[in-house]
Amino acid sequence: MGADESAGPAIVVRGLRKSYGHVEAVSGIDLRVPRGEIFAILGPNGAGKTTTLEILEGHLERSGGEVSVLGFDPGRPGRSLRERIGVVLQSASVDPYLTVQETVDLFRAYYPDPLPRETILELVGLSEQQRKLVRRLSGGQQRRLDVAVGLAGNPDLLFLDEPTTGFDPSARRDAWEMIRGLRSLGKTVVLTTHYMEEAEYLADRVAILVSGRIVAEGSVEELVGQGARTTIRFRVEGASPPKHLAAEPAGEEGAYMITTLDATGAVHGLTGWALEAGVELHGLTVAAPSLEDLFLDLAGSPERDGVA
Q1: CA 160 to CA 137: how far, in whole Å?
Q2: How far apart are CA 172 and CA 164, in angstroms?
Q3: Whole-prediction pTM value?
Q4: Which phi and psi angles does 135 have, rounded to 5°?
Q5: End-to-end Cα, the chain, rounded Å
Q6: Phi, psi of 122 (to 5 degrees)
Q7: The pLDDT of residue 271
Q8: Is 152:104 a contact under the CB 8 Å cutoff?
Q9: Which of 185, 197, 224, 249 is least enclosed by beta carbons within 10 angstroms?
Q10: What are the tens digits of pLDDT across the range 268-303?
Q11: 169-181 and 117-124 helices cross at what angle (nearest 10)?
Q12: Do 210 and 43 contact (CB within 8 A), yes or no?
């Protein structure tokens, strides 16, 4: 695919494959990421998320398929592509004895049109720490510095691999606001994550990757509306729901749960039965489906796959 620097999607992938011997880590995936979008790739450990990112970044050779990143083939990366992408790995290494501003300036010097240092530090929330040594930063601040380094060259496209792994909830929320702020600069962001809430909060669209294949793709609203089930919980005394309601016992005596794709019909059937039978429904709750519900349906349990 030839270069097109002015228009078209940021990323186009057709039939991407990556094999290691007889093991296929990525099995023929298709992706299209418009410019200016925050796109999240979700998946359990070993699903192929990092492998896919490394191919898009030009750090790993693909086994098959077509890939275009900003109009260039990352399998033959040249300076024109490398100057326009930023990469934030799961773990990065910078000189611990440089200050924050020295580190940012060091990486800015590698590019022809870098972002101003002050803009970078403000975006990542490190303006007040700019004279502090890297080794004296907290874990969350060091991760912010990783993002600052990725932004140094003023990239059109930023790759974030598990950007908030190991963060406490407060630091994770701060990082989310930082990432959302990149949209105001017109940046395209592609991130991988284990955290469902992170994807729901940040991403315009999501792809769920399982065993090297994309099993669902779209906005969170589209995916949840199509795939996940609503859960209805209630308690009754002295009666059992009829079989056609498909209610299953849920813990304490008299507690039941209905899992359904048709929430309206299920609630109507349940309340209709209760009115006709003169039964009081205690603690009736209707839990809307979530991205996590869909993910677990498609990918398995969090305990098995390392999903948060």
Answers
A1: 20
A2: 6
A3: 0.78
A4: -70, -15
A5: 37
A6: -70, -40
A7: 97
A8: yes
A9: 249
A10: 999 999 999 999 999 999 987 778 878 887 876 444
A11: 140
A12: yes
Fold match, 5-225 / 229-288: no
| Fold type of domain 5-225 | Rossmann fold (3.40.50)
Does 229-288 carry CATH code 3.30.300? no
Domain parsing of the chain, residue ranges: 5-225, 229-288
271, amino acid identity: T
Q: What is the pLDDT of residues 192-246, one digit of tens each?
A: 988 888 999 999 999 999 999 999 999 988 888 765 678 999 999 989 999 999 9
Q: What would the DSSP string read from start to end of the chain?
A: ----SSSS-SEEEEEEEEEETTEEEEEEEEEEE-TT-EEEEE--TTSSHHHHHHHHHTSS--SEEEEEETTB-TTS--HHHHTTEEEE-SS----TTSBHHHHHHHHHTTSSSPPPHHHHHHHHT-GGGTTSBGGGS-HHHHHHHHHHHHHTT--SEEEEESTTTT--HHHHHHHHHHHHHGGGGT-EEEEEES-HHHHHHH-SEEEEEETTEEEEEE-HHHHHHHH--EEEEEE-SS----GGG--EE-SSTTEEEEEES-HHHHHHHHHHHHHHHT---EEEEEEPP-HHHHHHHHH--HHHHT--
Pairing state between β 188-193 and 157-161: parallel
Burial environment of residue 124 by CB neighbours within 10 A (0 to 12, 13 to 18, 19 or more):
buried
